Structure of ABC transporter ATP-binding protein:
Amino acid sequence: MLPVVQLKGVTHAYLGDNEASLAIEDMNLSIDKGEFVSLVGPSGCGKTTLLSIIAGLLQPSLGEVTVNGKRIEGPSPQVGYMLQQDYLFPWRNILDNAALGLELTGNLNEETRLKTVDLLNEMGLAGKSEAYPAQLSGGMRQRVALVRTLVTNPGLLLLDEPFSALDYQIKLQLEDLVSETLRHRGTTAILVTHDLSEAIAVSSRVILLERNPGRIRKVFTVPDKIRNSPPLYARDQTGFTELFHEIWKEMELAGSK
Ligand SMILES: Nc1ncnc2c1ncn2[C@@H]1O[C@H](COP(=O)(O)OP(=O)(O)OP(=O)(O)O)[C@@H](O)[C@H]1O
């Protein structure tokens, strides 16, 4: 089966006036359909750079990224991107914010509008369609952002620390909701996070990057028993703490580079 994402020798240097800095070097990785993969590593190891390249927002200096076999050369409706900030427009109501992606791609019609309402309901936002972002909590706004991303049916979802600004309890609830929704839809996802326990709880694989330059240091496979539990309960499974410590130890070595 063709991998959803394939990185081949991806290298990126940022060019300044007098110098170039190598942000990531020779990254190779394949991600299969329905996989949920997390990128972790010390600050500056290239997580956001890599996500921007996969999103088609940045062209790598060398190498290539393919999504469903097609080389990524710019932003594509196949790839959804969800960030730490929800970026909802304050003057649009929740339904109009959630339908923005459909509108921008010329796909908003009666059927897709109803689908957006259904998805808002599914995300626990029933009755909020007419409300405005300022009337919602941070966790609710992030759920609207998720609906906006999912309703266009991207085959690949990129998540750049989407839970990090939320209170702990809301964060756990949202991890559960996102993980369950993506599993149900068979969506492939890549999550960037600084929270190692979150990475293990939601992922099938945790990719540890190192810095100077950013490279893949080690790939950890999350055992099925942990992977098949909802994220909230995954943390109680046998082997979770051991895997946490194993990755943590390696992460300290990656950070000392
Ligand atoms: N626009 C830019 N211009 C120049 N250098 C950049 C730029 N963006 C990132 N870098 C450099 O590239 C390297 C990787 O940065 P990146 O933001 O991708 O890392 P990160 O792992 O996401 O970091 P963090 O965990 O702190 O968010 C760093 O050395 C950073 O200073």
The chain has a mean pLDDT of 91.
